[in-house]
Predict the structure.
Amino acid sequence: MIPLLLAHLVAFLVCLAPGRRSARWALPVAAAVPAVTFGWLVSQSSSVLHGDVPSANLEWVPQLGLGISLRLDGFGLFMGLIVSGIGTLVMLYSTAYFGRRDDLGRLAGLLVGFAGAMLGIVWADGLLSLFVFWELTSITSFLLIGFEDRSATARSAAQRAFLVTGLGGLALLAGLILLGIQGGTTSLSVLLANPPSGTVTSVALVLVLAGAFTKSAQFPFHFWLPGAMAAPTPVSAYLHSA
């Protein structure tokens, strides 16, 4: 799983590299990364559905327990197939939709970066991992919604979306911290197996839900969504499917 996320990161950086932002090959090449991810997930589906749960850990600061923890259970498999499958189709469709534009490399980089962040969310097994990938989706969403950066409407819509989802991210962070303290662990799988109880936990869940509601544009945080349609059609299709 970690190599797949790193592949998304490498594709993101290559597509956004100076001199490559207008490359016409960027979209089909970027589409290969989620396509390979989709194929790998299909190859893992039998074992996961029979109860195997692949996991991976990348330590960052072991002394503080900081790192990236990933876990592929049934939910992660299902959502990963959706993220990578739709991502591949959107990127391939974009090659025909946009034709010969000068900024296709930038678009490809942002789309593959968003795909990698979404995969990180559905595979995350650590509270820190979940929050990091959550915020990465907010950043890439902001850049994708404002892709037509010469349009004042697109810039305004991107800023509004980033403000709402950014505040939701702070609520999510507070909720995750409270859950980690109450549960005595930063592992999502452990928390789900042995959920803490009490008033603090209830407050934490409300904060987590507030974060989720802002990201998914649920009432009363839905007002940023119509403006986000200022993004190009393929971008809107991918963002809203996510």
